[in-house]
Structures are given as structure tokens and as C-alpha cells.
Amino acid sequence: MICVKGKISRRGILFPTKAQRAQSFFSKFLCVLCAFVGNSIPLREILPFTQIIKSNFTRCTTYKAIKPQMIKLTNINKTYHNGSPLHVLKGIDLEIKKGEMVSIMGASGSGKSTLLNILGILDTYDTGKYYLNNMLISNLSETKAAGLRNRMIGFIFQSFNLISFKNAMENVALPLYYQGVSRKKRNEMALEYLDRLGLKDRWEHLPNELSGGQKQRVAIARALISQPQIILADEPTGALDSTTSEEVIQILKEVNRQGMTMIVVTHERSVAEATNKIIHIKDGLIEETEIVNDMKERKGRNNVNLKEISPSSKIIYTI
Ligand SMILES: Nc1ncnc2c1ncn2[C@@H]1O[C@H](COP(=O)(O)OP(=O)(O)OP(=O)(O)O)[C@@H](O)[C@H]1O
Ligand SMILES: [Mg+2]
After folding, report:
1. What is the distance in A from the centroid of ligand 1 to the CA of 232?
2. Closest Cα partner for 311 from 173, 178, 189, 150?
3. Taking the model in full, what pTM does it have?
4. Whose Cα sits closest to atom 8 in ligand 1?
5. Domains in the chain and their CATH numbers?
6. Which residues pair with 149 in a beta bridge?
7. Which of 77, 103, 113, 237 is the pocket-test mutation for ligand 1 (most atoms within 8 Å of CB)?
8. pLDDT tens readout for residues 129-182
9. What does the mean pLDDT of the chain come to?
């Protein structure tokens, strides 16, 4: 709240002075700036440094900035035309903010994977609008789509999708190959990511020489290596037993806590409850959005301790 003094006309209307108008404009500008920065910044701390706003500034509460948007879908429709037309998505509206961890639940065939494929630019939509990080995703050439996917999105699948004849290190390094990174550099980075996920000693193993949980950790390392903006996971725990599922979801949660936006499709309530928000899809429409309360979300929070994910630090992995 900002109070300004001004001239009072004969009718009692407050007219701000030029300086006050400038102050008001500048305050609004700072608010927008704060929103972009995405932090909670007390204006009190910023304003004294400006020359414009001085004596008229009486009280300022902490400005809670709005998190910027990562995904915005408006009225997305998708029909498959193999055989008789199948209208799968029937007008999806969805907003996901940067740093959110969201799950998508729904009956088999309700359109969850179709939606995730559209979000991951693996498939196209018919009508509506899809903005990824404020960029309209529409009519992209395959090359451009592949470039965006490689730069911005990490994928994790139920069936791991590892290349069977490549070892763990080569699988993790693959996204960097498509980015033109040299073999030496990409292998070094792959080993670093495997190390962070507690798998360095398994780098030479082929996928069929790894357990389900280990395969999924290799897949997570592969998704993270290109430092994407968003992770899309389609039933990441679907092929795992309950203990290994818990382990994998705690890794994903830790990655999210370190700032990564994450969308997880799941059939398991316990997995969904580990996220901040559950989106329920029914017959191609969002039926309900459920906010997971803190108590549920806190369950098992201390099960995994991953150190900061930054290129120079290691994840210490303890269950
Ligand atoms: N490429 C395709 N061509 C034609 N129909 C498709 C295609 N992909 C999916 N479908 C159909 O679209 C519907 C939604 O499929 P989708 O894979 O999105 O469901 P889902 O919610 O992920 O289901 P599940 O939980 O079983 O994975 C299904 O009826 C499916 O048969
Ligand atoms: Mg599916």
C-alpha cells in the first residue's frame, strides 16, 4: 500500500502532482519487475535506492511475487484419425507455473499420455493454444520441435526407453550427442550425473544388467543431463515395486525442490500425493484440480537427501 500526498481541488478531488504520478508509475514498474524476478522482495528494501520515491512513501508490505508461467494450455483439442475419428482431448485448459510439481491422474484411455505427448512436443494438437515458457508451440517443423525438446524438456517413461546395446554412461550421454557435444565431454558429464544418482560404479552395465530402479535412475540422469526447463514423466513408477517407486519419486521430488518444473502422469495415489497438485482427467477433460495439502506432501520428505544439483556438486543419495 502506497500513500501519496496531492493537491486537493475545490471539489475535494485529489490530484497527484507530476512527481507523484512518476512515483506511482515507477512503483508499478518495480512490482512487475519483482514478478519477473520471481522472488519475494520487500519493496521497502528496493525503494530507498531510487531517487524518485522518498518522503511520500509511508508503508509498504512485502510484495509476494507471482511465479512465472511455464505451461499454458487453452482449449486444447486432439482427435486421432486412425480408423473412425477418436476425439481424445476435448478442450483442456491448464496452467503450470515454473517450479511446480504436478501430477495427472485418470482412467486408462482418458488422454493422459496424449496430453503429455503434446506438452513434450512429441505430438501436435488440432485446435487451441499451447504456450511453453511463453512461446507459442504451433506448426513447428520436426527440426525445430526436436531442437526445442532437446533444449527444454527431459522425458522419463514407464518402460525406461534405454537403448539396450548402449551402456549406462552412453545412454545418459545421448542427449548431449544430439547437441553436438564432444564424446569426451559428454561421457565425463554422464559419469558425473550417474555419480549424482548413486550409479557411478554401474556405468559400464547394459540396461539388462540393471534392476528396474537402477534403470529408472539412469533414465532420470539422461533426462537431467541437458539441464532442461521441465521434466515430463509418464508413469515413471509404473514398472517398479512399491519400495523402488518411493525411492524414484523421492528423487524426482528432490530434483523439483531444486527448481525443476515437473509433470508426472500416474495411476498411483501415493505418487500423486507426493506432488503439489493433482489434475484429474476424465474423458478428455479436466474434471478436478486437487491441491495436495502440506501434511500429505511432507510425508516421507526426509527419506532422500540429494545434494544440490549443480554441475559442480554431487548428489549424496541416501534412502
Ligand atoms: N496414435 C494413436 N492413434 C490412435 N488412437 C490413439 C493413439 N494414441 C492413443 N490413442 C487412443 O487415444 C485414447 C487415449 O490414449 P492415451 O494413451 O492418451 O490414454 P492414457 O490416459 O494415457 O491411458 P493409460 O492410462 O492406459 O496409459 C485411447 O483410447 C487410445 O487408444
Ligand atoms: Mg498412458
Report:
1. 17
2. 189
3. 0.76
4. 114
5. 2-63 (no CATH), 100-114+141-301 (3.40.50.300)
6. none
7. 113
8. 999 999 999 989 999 999 999 999 999 999 999 999 999 999 999 999 999 999
9. 81
